[in-house]
């Protein structure tokens, strides 16, 4: 376990107040607005370290290589359903996906296989609105 620095503590506290996934740049800007003296590289390093120990969930922005982060209190493996419009995220279980992944790994003699699955759509609150993709800009 890595040492809890004041920068990491600030990142965790910020993420605990957010419901949606945020980019490292978003996190950096929010922390600076709160008065934290932190560098963007420090935010990236801490987020990567937190992702390795699974204290944050990480998804890739749809149609992009940008990583998005969210505090994760759930230690169990799960997937995400993400609204393209507002960023609302729901943790979902996928037993059929888990079984399929294990079957494919076994068929091809692979071990230690991991995976990530995100589903993107539009939540019911955004259903009547045109997709603005505000969350992903």
List the helices and strands and how they pair.
Layout (H helix, E strand, L loop, with lengths): L5 H11 L5 E2 H10 L6 H13 L3 E5 L6 E5 L7 E5 L5 E4 L2 H13 L10 E4 L16
Parallel strand pairs: 4-6
Antiparallel strand pairs: 1-3, 2-3, 4-5
What does it look like?
The chain has about 140 residues and is α+β, with helices and mostly antiparallel strands. The chain contains four helices and six strands, in the order αβααββββαβ. The strands form two sheets. Strands 1-3-2 form a three-stranded antiparallel β-sheet. A three-stranded mixed β-sheet has the order 5-4-6, with no helix packed on it. A hairpin with a 5-residue loop joins strand 4 and strand 5 (about 90). Helix 2 (about 25-35) packs across helix 3 (about 40-50). The longest helix has 13 residues, at about 40-50. The protein is globular and about 50 Å long. The model has no long low-confidence stretch (mean pLDDT about 85).
